[in-house]
Amino acid sequence: MNARLPLDFDLRYLELPDDMYERVLPIPHGSHHLVHANPGAFERLGLDPALADDPAFVALCAGHQLPRGAKPIATVYAGHQFGGWVPQLGDGRALLLGELRDPHGERWEVQLKGAGPTPFSRMGDGRAVLRSTIREYLCSEAMAGLGIPSTQALAIIGSDGPVYRETLETGAILVRLAPTHIRFGHFEYYAHSGRHERLAQLADFVIEHHLPELAERPKPERYLGLYEHAVDCTARLLAAWQAVGFAHGVMNTDNMSILGLTIDYGPFGFLDGYYPGFICNHSDAAGRYAFKRQPQIGWWNLACLEAALSPLAPREAMRPLLDSYGDRFESCYFDLLRAKLGLRETRAEDPELIIAFLDLLAAYRNDYTQTWRLLANFRRDADNTALLDHFVDRERCAAWAVRYAERLRAEGSDDAERAARMNRVNPKYVLRNWLAQRAIERAQAGDYAEIDRLLHILRTPCDEHPEAADCDAPPPDWARDIEVSCSS
User: Fold this and answer.
1) Residues 65 and 59: beta-carbon distance below 8 Å
2) What pTM was estimated for this model as a whole?
3) Considering Cα of 162, then 167, then 169, then 173, what sign does the dihedral take?
4) Which residue ranges run through the membrane (predicted)?
5) pLDDT per position as a tens digit, 273-326
6) Of 8, 53, 232, 254, which is the active-site residue?
7) β-pairing, 128-129 with 94-101?
8) Is 254 a known active-site residue?
9) 3-state secondary structure of 4
10) Residue 120: exposure state from Cβ atoms within 10 A (0-12, 13-18, ≥19)
11) Does 125 carry a binding-site annotation?
12) DSSP string across 86-141
């Protein structure tokens, strides 16, 4: 191990009984090279970004060497996948290398995704491909730029080792960060296998290390607090997804973070034209995870978590918390959309005004991101020609604009001040699938500059980036038929 790398790992998960995980070592696959390192993530960890240029860093991430203190493991969990129960899943292509402390003393789990098979690979090869790794790398940073809780990415390590998916592809490893990667499915595994002692140990572990304010509560109140936190952060996460037009694509319970993080990016998609029935996952033929269904699926997954925690806390006490999910979601969602409309006050008629605008977008599939951004140019006492020209039915848009102008006048809104606020919350840039695809195709040809450019733009998506005039447009003709599936 190169002594210049200040990477000293430990891992609190090892405090849990050793039958709750499997020891596993990364298995290098071909020769490796750095594709991209995320300077923001290095800064977050208090590391010099120049470390990414050290061959020892690449060797560490590729599994050729282990850093000091690393004792890699794969964890076991279960889950409901597309509504069907699977009693055992687990980290099939990810291993938990250990934890690093940032300058503030916060701990970050470091996962290697694609570093080889684990005992939970279920006949899989445990590998990741460059295509999907780039998508997750860029989107996790895009979500952070939008202020949405997410796992983060430290680096992409490329490999010349072949990986077979629908076709032969180039392999890669994603170095992924999160406070914890524990999911609803971890709790489901121990509950449904009847290992209730382990279930309590896992719950206590999460509380001790991530929700310490609950630790002093007696049982079962501490577990009710854990569940309420999951309900609240999931409601807020889903509201944020809906507000920015993000579709996850695989909202299985094993892809739901107990801390309300966006996790396991695969066939995701940001809306282009506003279509509530948008299905981003080509594998989701029934549309279970269509954009408009995401809030409902959040509730369904929380109901599964309630069942999993029922050996620790009475369901009659958890049910009111689950029932509160809808109100929590709606409150957060309409607050976010009020901000997108530039409204400072909360009024009873606001949801009707918001829904009318969304209906207007849906009627003609207007571009979701562009239209919200354009709305900042609205003036209370002008004809707003630019907005009207954006819609096929100018008369219907004009009728809504009259209502919006009245609402702005009612709270004494100043046009210039409101426009500035709106442009701070309505992004100009999101990671549209065609942008990701262009970066992927260039990277597959050995050119990683587009990854760097997109990462820079997506870190501050509400700012103007004159150098990125080509990145805020709907998909070009060549990209209209891009399909992403569970292998993405």
Assistant:
1) yes
2) 0.96
3) negative
4) none
5) 999 999 999 999 999 999 999 999 999 999 999 999 999 999 999 999 999 999
6) 254
7) unpaired
8) yes
9) coil
10) buried
11) yes
12) ES----SSEEEEEEEE-TTS-EEEEEEETB---TTSTT---BEEHHHHHHHHHHHH
